[in-house]
Specification:
The chain has about 375 residues and is of the alpha+beta class. About 30% of the residues lie in helices and about 15% in strands. The protein has a single domain, classed as B-lactam Antibiotic, Isopenicillin N Synthase, Chain (Jelly Rolls). The chain has eleven helices and twelve strands. Bound molecules: 2-oxoglutaric acid and fe (ii) ion. InterPro entries: DIOX_N, IPNS-like_FE2OG_OXY, IPNS-like_sf, Iron_ascorbate_oxido_reductase, Oxoglu/Fe-dep_dioxygenase_dom.
Length: about 375
């Protein structure tokens, strides 16, 4: 079967309400997979595993599939909720910054513009984001946090989105599980919806940047979790091409989500899949004048799950004398999420800067 890549845009590849993504910037060759084909085609499933190993990023066409269409509709509705939330004053939003409030100290909640750093020089980020925890919205947190009114007014929508995003990503996990030839259910068991976990919906927004002062909006990073489901419409996301060592834009495509592999799955697979480095820069071309919103769902293992390789299948066993750090999902998130916060750095709680992909696994 022929699998397209994003090298060039097709006729229905533009968002009608936005200036077009330029045709003269290089774009990354993500495979275009289809959710509906994935349900029945072995070739599509093989392509999924290939994408998870080679680049760790791929497009997933959500159209012509009930779950996919539901996620497209709900994500559009959440983009509206996102607008309402960011219309709140900075003072109001800052009430939900839990990054230094004990006993709730957490990466959930609001992060103001410039609260994170994008590079080793300490340059500040150019985005605001809000991390809305799955467990609060599914009413399964021991100690739920307060969240802004626009989110609480759409609590059912957020809950429904968490369930659907989790269902979709679980389906992808099942395919990866079978390609790794693990016991059926091995990966799913560590990601049961009812387990307390770091899963959350992230609402990211970046205002247009002054043309004379462009900077990285979100610094180069890998995602912590197992799989990430991303909807964006304005360009700016870039992936590091593993062979060239250069960053390349990911063209947003209507009707498609972008899916990427995170660090936890690298650990579980003993380095077989790839958690690729990516970043967000100012939107290219005519899109540079747009506010850039994105909607991310991070699927993560349960908080108490140990991030060690699975045994069985094609997962390479540890070599004699080789040891793996025994860190739980919760400990890993705590260190990693706080490592890019400038305030945390100042207070001396700068976490370990954890980056994992195939090549770096050994130095983590
Ligand atoms: O906004 C985007 O397109 C990507 C955001 C991202 O990589 C993240 O929040 O981890
Ligand atoms: Fe990311």
């Amino acid at each position: 079967m022929e699998i397209n890549t994003s090298g060039s845009a097709g006729t229905d590849d533009v968002f009608p309400d936005l200036p077009p993504f330029p045709d003269d910037v290089p774009t990354a060759p993500l495979l275009r997979l289809s959710l509906s084909n994935l349900r029945s085609s072995k070739d599509e499933s093989d392509a999924l595993f290939r994408a998870a190993k080679d680049l760790g990023f791929f497009y997933l066409d959500m159209r012509n599939d009930t779950l996919g269409e539901t996620l497209l509709t709900e994500s559009s509705q959440l983009f509206e909720v996102e607008k309402k939330m960011y219309a709140l004053s900075e003072e109001e939003l800052n009430r939900y910054d839990y990054s230094s409030i004990e006993p709730h100290r957490s990466y959930f909640g609001y992060k103001a513009m410039g609260k994170g750093v994008v590079d080793a020089k300490g340059n500040k980020d150019r985005n605001q984001f809000y991390n809305a925890p799955k467990d609060d919205f599914l009413d399964q947190s021991a100690d739920p946090l307060a969240h802004p009114k626009p989110l609480m007014e759409s609590k059912e929508l957020l809950a429904s989105y968490c369930r659907h995003a989790h269902e979709l990503l679980s389906l992808l996990l099942t395919h990866i599980n079978s390609h790794l030839r693990l016991e059926p259910g091995t990966l799913s068991k560590m990601h049961t919806l009812s387990l307390r976990s770091g899963d959350h919906i992230r609402f990211v927004t970046s205002p247009p940047q002054p043309p004379q002062d462009l900077n990285t909006s979100m610094g180069a990073h890998t995602d912590f979790g197992s799989l990430t489901l991303l909807f964006n419409r304005v360009g700016g996301l870039q992936v590091l091409l593993p062979e060239q060592g250069t960053f390349s834009y990911v063209r947003p495509l209507p009707g498609h989500a972008i899916v990427n592999v995170g660090d936890a799955l690298v650990k579980f697979s003993g380095g077989i899949v790839r958690s690729n480095i990516h970043r967000v820069v100012a939107p290219p071309g005519a899109q540079s004048k747009c506010t850039r919103d994105s909607l991310v769902y991070f699927m993560r293992p349960g908080d108490n799950v140990l991030l060690v390789r699975c045994s069985g299948g094609i997962v390479p066993p540890l070599k004699e004398g080789e040891e793996e750090e025994r860190v739980t999902s919760w400990e890993w998130i705590r260190d990693k999420a706080m490592s890019t916060r400038s305030a945390a750095k100042k207070e001396g709680v700068y976490g370990k800067q954890r980056v994992t992909n195939k090549d770096e696994l050994k130095i983590v």
